[in-house]
Amino acid sequence: DGVVGSEKVKSNNLDAKIPESELEAEEKGTKEEPTRESDGNILDVSSDYPRDKHISIQRHLADLEKLADLREDKKKPCPLCPEEKFKACYSHKLHRHLQNLHWKVSVEFKGYRMCICHLPCHPVKPNLVGDQTLSKMGAHYHCIICSATITRRTDMIGHINRHVNKGETESRFITVRAPTNEVIKESATDVQVLPNHSTPQKTDSYFNPKMKLNRQLIFCALAVLAEERKPIECLDAFGATGIMGLQWAKHLRSSVKVTINDCNENSVKIIKENCHLNKMKVKLNMKEGDSDGTVGDGEENTDTIEVTKMDANVIMHLRSFDFIHLDPFGTSVNYLDSAFRNVRNLGIVSLTSTDISSLYAKAQHVALRHYGCNIVRTEYYKELAARIVIAAVTRAAARCNKGIEVLLAVALEHFVLVVVRVLRGPSTADNSAKKIRYLIHCQWCEERIFQKEGNMVEENPYQQLPCDCHGSMPGRTAVVLGPLWSGSLFNTGFLRRMLLEAVQYGLDEAQPLLKTLVCEAECTTLKHFSTHGPGDENKQEECGVYIKTSDTSAESYVVPGKRKGEEVIRGAAKRQRAEHSAEHPAFYYNVHRHSIRGMNMPKLNKFLNYLSEAGYRVSRTHFDPMGVRTNAPLAQFKTVLMKYSTPTYMVGQAEGPVHLPGAVQVGEEVPAAADTKEEDAEFPEDDKSRVIDAVSSQPYPTDCAAD
């Protein structure tokens, strides 16, 4: 670990200890002021505890040379460089290396030299090679005062000067111990994580506790697929700590054959240790055809996990899988072609995209570069991000003559998760590609509509928008976004089965979200939610793979044979065309965005009831807590919202249709003139005119939403 204890130094006759005169002077100073110890590993020089220091801090060049092997007949390694950086050599070459590389660039402080160190003490930001992180260890200095690691010499000099300005001049030596791996438990699975596991730039095995919900959703999707056919081969292409693959193997057991892959050697080592920690058999496959089987300590388990060290594109090109999950650091577009190349028919591909800066329209040029899509920031930007990713997935699948059916699309604060089922055949690929269309978005009122199918150029594309902002506003009022996925984002039958799996395995965090997704897929409110599903059996079909009956909630049948499977798929496609009108409406409206100034909105649940009573389909959405998914036009949406809003200065009036202040109602007496003057004093002229305009019989103009 690059540490030399004081006893070891003394045994090697090294002159690396502080003179007694300095120790006596420091002991006198510390008697007046108590020793401050900011860390348990940082020891003051004046203490009688055995003092250790890093080997890069020495007084003389000869002390560095003596740290190497003193036998003259053998080559000597450099004590401050790893073997892969500087191989062992003879004494004359080692002397030049230590003098030129380490000693000349050292930083001096009170007779000590802090030499540059190349040992694995200070991780640096990883390089992106093929969008996969390959971290390395960088050169650095060890501070003699606070034991910090500094990369540059000028920064180290400034660091020492800051200590001197603060009066911190006491030399403190730190014992560099091997970092202890923390053990984290999630869903009855134990995993070891490296230090700085929550910072991807500082660790080889990244572990994010905030992605627990993401892992639970993927597990539920895999559990549903495992009910269809057993066993299934599943791949975690970016294992990191291996937490996801371990959860698959530990809970689903013989139903799955798990393969965990990572291109980083340290990550593969951590994955192997985590398999042993969970008493799993490990089958190592570092290269194709070279395998090694090892068994974890403790009680043996019949489950076996295959651990591979390859590039993600390579392993997906070489082997076929039923379930593939992609979770790279950033975008997933570089791995989509490989994922759809060998995925089996009716298999599932799930991908997690964490490049939310580009997907959420904060870096629009990056979205254009990665996804080939033009976007702007809108009120429905999260659903826009999900449709961008699905469009990229659809194009990648179509290039391999495969179509997709979207089972699940979730966009939350930290990630965008998309789960699709793969359907082989050029006809299904064509049908999926036809659902990629452009979107016309009005920048004034936020109204939106997908462009009509066809290649003919329209004379006035503004006519497709339901609003009349182009006629009442100057200039160009709309933009064209896309290309985007225009089809459905959810499959109700699949989501209901995922909810059953979440209840069965006790995944509490995923259950509320899955209930919201089922309601959103059916475009119903939560009070109408039922775990048994609607009576219509056709709505429970997923391209003919599953058929749900009314008496069993999770029954399914496996499509035996390719020819029969194709017939079932064709039959399901016909039923899907008949049910196309029952799909959930595209996009949603934010209630706060379209609220009326000076008016109190009704409660969100009551507003949903008002829209439902008006004859529209309505539901809440997981994309936005204040969003409403409905098939009502924006003009009708605003009309209902205005009708049941109350002025902010009318105290005591219940929610309901707005009435004019001071207006004569049926059965009421005409107020006196004095009362009318008092009401005129309460309501300023501007506010009164705004209320009168709001409650007029004419519908609310759509072009006023820009206020």
CATH architecture of the domain at 182-285 and 302-452 and 468-493: 3-Layer(aba) Sandwich
Overall body shape: globular
CATH class value of the domain at 182-285 and 302-452 and 468-493: Alpha Beta
Distance between the termini: 65 Å
As residue ranges, the low-confidence spans are 1-51, 127-136, 174-178, 288-292, 295-301, 533-564, 573-581, 651-655, 659-707
Structural features, described:
There is one protein chain. This protein has 707 residues and is of the alpha+beta class. Helix content is 33%, strand content 18%. It contains 22 helices and 30 strands. A hairpin with a 2-residue loop joins β12 and β13 (189-193). α10 (336-342) crosses α13 (381-399) and α13 (381-399) runs antiparallel to α14.
Q: What are the main properties of this structure?
A:
707 residues; alpha+beta; Rossmann fold; Phenylalanyl-tRNA Synthetase, Chain B, domain 1; nine-stranded mixed sheet; three-stranded antiparallel sheet; 33% helix; 18% strand; globular; disordered N terminus; disordered C terminus
